[in-house]
Each structure stands twice: as C-alpha cells, then as structure tokens.
Write a structure and sequence with these properties.
Elements: E1 5-9, H1 17-26, H2 29-33, E2 35-39, H3 42-50, E3 57-61, E4 74-78, H4 95-113, E5 119-121, H5 127-132, H6 140-147, E6 154-159, E7 162-166, H7 173-179, H8 182-200, E8 206-210, H9 225-239, E9 243-248, H10 250-253, H11 257-260, E10 264-267, H12 270-281, E11 286-290, E12 295-299, H13 316-339
Parallel strand pairs: 1-2, 1-5, 2-4, 3-4, 5-12, 7-10, 8-9, 8-10
Antiparallel strand pairs: 6-7, 6-11, 11-12
Length: about 350
Amino acid sequence: MNNPVVLITLGDPAGVGPEVIVRSFGTGRLRKLATAVVVGPPEFLTRALQSTAVRLSIEEVDLPREASLVGELGIPVIRSSRRVLPPVQWGRGGKETGRIAAEAIIKATKLVQTGEADALVTGPVCKEVLNLAGYDYPGQTEMLAHLTNAHRFAMMLVGGELRVALVTTHCAISEVASKITKRAVLEKLEVLHQDLKSRFGVDSPRIGVSALNPHAGEGGLFGREEIEQIQPAIEQAKAKGIEALGPFPADTLFARRAQLKLDAILAMYHDQGLIPLKLTSFGHGVNVTLGLPIIRTSPDHGTAFDIAGQGTADPTSFIEAFELATFMVRKAKSRSACIS
C-alpha cells in the first residue's frame, strides 16, 4: 500500500497550532507514518521554529506530491494564500488570524477532495475568531461539512480504546432536550455505524446509547425523551441492522463499556460524553469528524492563546491525531480493496 499523504492545516497563527506542528515534525514520528504536508503561510511556521528547539527548515511546495523532494530535515508547506499578511502577535487572535486559519482549511479540503491527499489533520482554531472573520460556523466540524457538502455528519472523540460520538455538539444546555429527536439520534447512529465499519475496521459495531436524563428518565418521572425519542430511534436502528444498545444511564454507561463489549458510545450532549473521555485521555484525545467524504481528525485542545509563543505547547494530541488519520486511511483503503 502506498504511503498515505496527510495534509495539516496551520490553525490560528496566534495560537499554539504552529508550535505543535513543528514540534510534531521534530519528533520524526510523522515522517515514519505518512507523507505530511502543512497548508498555511510558511512564515508562521518559521516563527514557531524560532520559539522552539526544533532544528528543521521550512520548504515551500506547490502540491502535496512534491513533498517527496523535501529532505528529512525539512517541513513541506503549501502556501494557502498569496495576499500580503499583516503582523500577528502570539496570543492575539482576531479577525485576521481567523481568516488565515480559514483559508488554510479551505485550501487543504479542496486538495483532499480532488485526490491530491488522503486525509486532513486540522490545527486548533478559535470559534469566536472564525466568526469574526466572517465564517459563521459553530466550529471546524460544521465548516468542513459545508465545504464537502456533507449533510449527515457527527463529532466523535477518541481516547485510547474509548470512542464517544455526540448527538448534539456546540449548543447551549438549555437547547439540548429539544434537539434530542428520533431523527437526530437515528442519523448519528447510522453515521457512527458506517464509519466504524469503513474507516475503523470494525465489522459488526456494538454501540452503547446514553440516556439524556438521570436514571434514564426513571420511566418518565424525570423526563420522557428516553421513551418518546431515544428508545424509538434505537429500535429503528436495530431494524436497519445496527447493533445499538440502551438507552443506559450516563453515570454508569462508561463504567460498563468493557462489560458490554462496546465499540463506541453515543452520548446526547457535549459534556456528557467528553468529560469521561478527557478524564481518562486528557492531552491524548483526538477529534474525528464522521460522515464526511474525506478523513479528518484534529487534536482535542484549542488555541491556548495564553501559552502561545513560549515553545512549551505539548504536541502529544496532535501526533495522536496524525496517527489516527493514517490508521483510518489504511483501514479505508484496505476495505475498498476487499470490496473491489
């Protein structure tokens, strides 16, 4: 199998994205896994090198395939924009840094869509800054779904053997209950089931479904979402050949994951699913967007403006995201070869 080509977006240039990228290259791990190419303005990577102890050079290329011409001590970079960029201060995200981050995402997504690369690992961005720049999305997940014309998608975090997908993501807690519908739960189950098979190599996924309310609603005493929305969605999923179990009370589901032999958990809202995952995998988690026509992962941390430019940003989660992207590429190609 050919070495995967994985693109990396710069992230917000005022944040830790450039630092974790150059530090990840500095470990030598990326080169062993795949052909890695950064997309973004090269000058911000040059600045990141100066703030770290990494002794590499920045080598500009026009296309991902040209990365093979770059030596072991070089970081191949595709420039995302030819316009003149203003100075950017570490830790000072704003409208212009949001635009720079978005341009890299758009450029890299197009390259993967056209077959120039196999997967995308996105650097951290600030949602508020993206919005200031005119990109009105709750996050990169929704932006990538729009760019790839994906209408059915889901956010999943991976930490070790734990995989947690979410029905709702970035919305107020006061809005969650109204968004837990049969259609929403069933859609996420279908997307999760399909990607576990096609991109994670799980032939017969077992998915544990979390309840929304305490004690799974206690028969309707604490809420009827389980009775009227979640359970019917699970039954519809089973009728389609999806092995979905639950709904289980959220406070016990994660502890019973091994006993139930679950391949993934579907949680109802952001913190319900991600607190347990980050408790066990903080700094090592990986964000995966399911349901896209492209493979995309990202580290589980944000821009960390408060420590940007200090050369102390931990690249562990970014390296994990890169490793998972290459794993998914290999699994997808292997499955495609078997089918054909």
